Amino acid sequence: MNELSIIKHAKLHRDSIAFKNELSQQTYQNLLDRSEQLAAKLLENDSDLNCATIAMLIPADSDFVCVQWAIWRAGGIMLPLCLSATLPEWEYALGDSNTSMLITTQELKPEISDLCSRLNVRLLTIESYHSKKEIVLPTIKNSRPAMILYTSGTTNKPKGVLTTHANIEAQIESLVEAWKWEASDRIPLFLPLHHIHGIINVICCAMWSGALVEPFNRFDIHAITNRVSQDAYTIFMAVPTIYVKLIQMIESIEKSSRDRIIAGFKKMRLMVSGSAALPTTVHDRWFQLTGQKLLERYGMTEIGMALSNPYDGERRPGSVGKPLPGVNIRLKSDSGKLIRNENEPGEIQISGPGVFKEYWNRPQITSESFEDEIWFRTGDMAVIETGYYRIMGRLSTDIIKSGGYKLSALEIESTILQHPNISECAVVGIEDETWGEAVAVAVILKESTTLKLEDFREWCRIRLSVYKIPKHLITVKELPKNAMGKVIKKEVSALFKYEK
Where are the chain's structural domains? Predict the structure, then answer.
């Protein structure tokens, strides 16, 4: 029987522990058996779900994988819902995706049962199903649709990104090769499972490799660092905010505890940062504390991971490295010219087997998102510097066009965060009659510090001059009240910027 590759890989590790927490552990065989029984329940009297959309509202634990595999093995398309989303957000996703069934836990059922009833969506809870007859599952070709993930809706309604099994397999194989996943690896899972970061980079890569996943309901910094101090993990994947919180926590605790945690991080073979830009100050401070050089990468829901600093070799702060295996990349200027020179910015365009199939029920938007039918337009601008790609930001929100120059808001933010009195900042472009757009910044000062505007202006003139920005553009004006909406929008969109 032809089976999906991820199921074939799981069968190679039947007796290994797939998930483990304080209360229980599940072998790969447990996951295979439970997902098979649940797949039979989903099928009932049908032989194949025939690409029906099946939503799942499941916590980040072994149940998630059981449901994921069950939907795939029965021939359905999985739609993972955000556990913390609002009812209107759930309603939009279920309606837009034409969901026919939703699987959840007994504990979460009351939160969504009324909505399912109103939308005529069949509601199931995950439990032990035991079929009395022989289970016959359909043969699933990897060209079939596999998953819908909804992207940011900061300007329009969220779009459903539809990927095939072949797309997902290509994304997994690329990362397993580049990051050298092994069956002996152990990784904590605290990332949300309605984004590609947690689903592909952590769960799917681990399950493909026969590794062990230790799940947490949320980022519990004390529980996780306690396990780190016990040498529980070989791989660690997180977003920049988590590394900031870890730094703050490590620097605030007493020495004996601090030393044990640092020792645990030092022993890990790989630590990855993604889903947003990592300030160089955080990269440097983490290295000073733990001796670990964080591996930064770049990806999106539509393409999986596309760029990565190398596993072996230079991990350059502020850079996202080079194309991953199987990924083709090009930069294109505003005028449509292909960029072949370094230090010349252009839009990132991606092709390859990991690129998504289409936006769900949006053929026009899908068509507009590709050039020459195969090159996906990411909407992100980058520049190549001595062979490594550096992300300048979203063309729509992070590139400030001022006086004929394209200024990267991300680059300016990263520099401003080096100021000893500033803890957070947001840089945006605001309309300016003379220069088209002027750079404006909102900052949050660290506790018990002050900063005079003129002193800050002079500091910026010195620090930002390294980017060859003309001095007349480094004015650092106070942010007008009518620009605050733009700052808020920018900060919201940052949640979805890279990974999604």
Answer: 5-140, 399-496
Closest CA to 341 of 384, 377, 380: 384
The burial class, CB within 10 Å (0-12 / 13-18 / 19+), for 3 is: middle
Q: Compute the C-alpha angle 376/377/382, nearest 5°.
A: 120
Give the C-alpha separation, 340 to 141, whole Å. Answer: 38
pLDDT single digits (tens) 371-389: 998 999 998 889 999 999 9
CB 147 within 8 A of CB 162: yes
Strands (E) located in 301-351: 304-308, 322-323, 328-332, 338-339, 346-351
**Cβ atoms of 321 and 306 closer than 8 Å:** no
Give the amino acid at 180: K
pTM of the prediction? 0.82
Instruction: Specify whether the CB–CB gap between 277 and 409 falls below 8 A.
Output: no
- Which regions of 352-497 does DSSP assign to beta strands (E)? 358-359, 370-371, 375-385, 388-394, 399-402, 405-408, 422-432, 436-445
- Extract the tokens encoding 332: 């294109």
C-beta atoms surrounding 208 within 10 Å: 23
pLDDT digits (tens, 9 = 90+) for 1-47: 568 999 999 999 999 999 998 888 999 999 999 999 999 999 988 99
- Token pair for 173: 């194989």
Q: For residue 397, what pLDDT is reported? A: 59
CATH, domain 399-496, list 3.30.300.30, 3.20.20.80, 3.30.390.30, 3.30.230.10: 3.30.300.30
Exposure string of 236-264, with b = 16+ CB inside 10 Å and e = fewer, is: bbbbbebbbebbeebeeeeeeebebbbeb
Sign of CA dihedral 27, 28, 33, 34: positive
277, 300, 320, 321: which is closest to 409 by C-alpha? 277
Tokens of 218: 């949320």
Kindly state the greatest CA–CA separation across the chain: 78
Query: Tokens for 89?
Result: 């957000």
Q: Which CATH architecture has domain 5-140?
A: 3-Layer(aba) Sandwich (3.40)
Give residue 312's identity as a one-letter amino acid code.
D
> What phi and psi, each to the nearest 5 degrees, are found at residue 273?
-125, 135
